[in-house]
Amino acid sequence: MKLQTITCSTRPGRVGPSISRWFNALANQEGGFESELVDLADFNLPVYDEPSHPRLQKFEHQHTKAWSESVDNADAYVFVIPEYNFCPPPSFINALNYVYNEWTYKPCGFVSYGGVSGGLRSAQLAKQLVTAVKMMPMVEGVMIQMPWESLGNNREFIASDHHTSSANTMLVELARWAKALKALR
């Protein structure tokens, strides 16, 4: 099964890619998935600009076609998501809205990060949003408080034991749901 670890922040100086690299390596090590890194910044998605509804899949723009193909290639997703003003970043919401069928009947998990809340408020709102495209959000998740305090010399994220334990628990559940939902797709 294929898993995409998606970096959701697109802002300069972001810590998301470091966290995504850590999680992606862990996911590949676990063996339940073949995981790949996906960075929303690489797609340069403007605010939704397709004339047709995403369900119709009549995409006119190359950035939408590339995003659709990327999303369609996975059986499950983990969104590495910061918290901006108690919410998911606009880049996540926009990317979610760009396609519809490609997300349907697939599970997703969240690795959230931020200040003292560890991005929990962002993840909770994001869970509500993904259900609108018929995704199944995992109850389990990874919460990273003050991630900038866990960066090594090369800005690599250094996980604590509780991060790794939470990630492993979420990956087990994600694999179960991905197998079960495959029949619906």
Description:
The protein has five helices and six strands. It is of the alpha/beta class. It has a single domain, classed as Rossmann fold (3-Layer(aba) Sandwich). Strands 1, 2, 3, 4, 5 and 6 form a six-stranded parallel β-sheet that branches. Helix 1 packs across helix 5. The mean pLDDT is 96.
What's the helix and strand layout?
Blueprint: E1 2-7, H1 16-30, E2 34-39, H2 62-72, E3 76-82, H3 90-98, E4 107-114, H4 120-131, E5 136-137, E6 142-145, H5 161-182
Parallel strand pairs: 1-2, 1-3, 3-4, 4-5, 4-6
Helix pairs in contact: 1-5
What is the gyration radius calculated from CA atoms? 15 Å
Name the structural class.
alpha/beta
**CATH topology description:** Rossmann fold
What is the rounded distance between the termini?
Answer: 13 Å
Largest sheet: 6 strands, parallel
Question: In CATH, what is the class?
Answer: Alpha Beta
The CATH level-2 architecture is identified as: 3-Layer(aba) Sandwich
Count of extended strands: 6
Rounded mean pLDDT is 96
The gross shape turns out to be: globular
Number of continuous helical runs: 5
The level of helicity is: 25-40%
Low-confidence stretches: none
Into how many domains do the coordinates divide?
Answer: 1
Beta fraction of the residues?
15-25%
> What is the CATH superfamily?
Flavodoxin domain
How would you describe the oligomerization state of the chains in this entry? single chain
Order of helices and strands: EHEHEHEHEEH
